[in-house]
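queue> pop job 88
queue> type: inverse folding (structure -> sequence)
queue> payload:
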């Protein structure tokens, strides 16, 4: 995909460092997007609540409300537009905290412009392309309704975060196949480099607690040294 391909997105960027905000805004503007800049978290929240954006890019360290709180607040107000977090802190804890707050992806500063564009494209593809050929995915008594974005196990509704949902969707679209941690990183988070694969384990465990812990048969199995497999036998 060419770097300069038009995306035409309406983007809210919360970034307090003017130099970084200007570079991101310029690059995204050149590819056909409209970028509104908020210099702090509270301004970003006001803008998000009063306008409709296609995508949010939030720096984590912001004056006032930080990027994580911003994300959490929007998710609470039922705003599920994709959120890309920018973080100078590459530690697993911060990444997990960001994804827990409801963010869809993150980018560690400093990053290359091409990487930012690639993440945005992957994010928009994932969030727009949720409607598959089939409406429901199933394994044993686990069911995922792609249109309603509803998950049930033995008829009980299971409440998942957006990341857990994407992970389960990926498992269900690849049943009875060994899935590596890298496969999950690439397909659930869109991360294509070898860092923080333990984030995957953390999320697989969250998902297991919700869909497997109180049910039989267990569906997500660990394949030692390889990854995971979704199967009912
Ligand atoms: Ca900052």
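queue> result:
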């Amino acid at each position: 995909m060419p770097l300069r391909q038009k995306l035409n997105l309406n983007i809210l960027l919360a970034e307090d460092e003017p130099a970084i905000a200007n570079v991101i805004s310029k690059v995204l503007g050149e590819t056909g997007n409209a970028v509104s800049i908020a210099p702090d978290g509270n301004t970003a929240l006001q803008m998000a609540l009063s306008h409709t954006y296609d995508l949010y890019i939030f720096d984590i360290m912001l004056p006032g409300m930080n990027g994580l709180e911003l994300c959490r607040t929007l998710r609470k107000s039922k705003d599920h537009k994709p959120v890309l977090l920018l973080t100078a802190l590459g530690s697993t804890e911060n990444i997990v905290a960001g994804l827990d707050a409801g963010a869809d992806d993150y980018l560690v500063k400093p990053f290359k412009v091409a990487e930012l564009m690639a993440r945005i494209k992957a994010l928009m593809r994932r969030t727009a392309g949720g409607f598959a050929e089939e409406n429901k995915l199933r394994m044993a008594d686990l069911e995922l309704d792609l249109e309603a974005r509803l998950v049930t196990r033995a008829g009980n509704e299971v409440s998942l975060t957006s990341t857990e949902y994407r992970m389960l969707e990926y498992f269900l679209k690849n049943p009875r196949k060994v899935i590596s941690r890298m496969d999950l990183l690439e397909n659930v988070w869109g991360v294509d480099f070898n860092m923080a694969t333990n984030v995957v384990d953390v999320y697989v465990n969250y998902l297991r607690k919700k869909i497997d812990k109180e049910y039989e048969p267990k569906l997500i199995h660990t394949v030692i040294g390889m990854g995971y497999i979704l199967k009912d036998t």
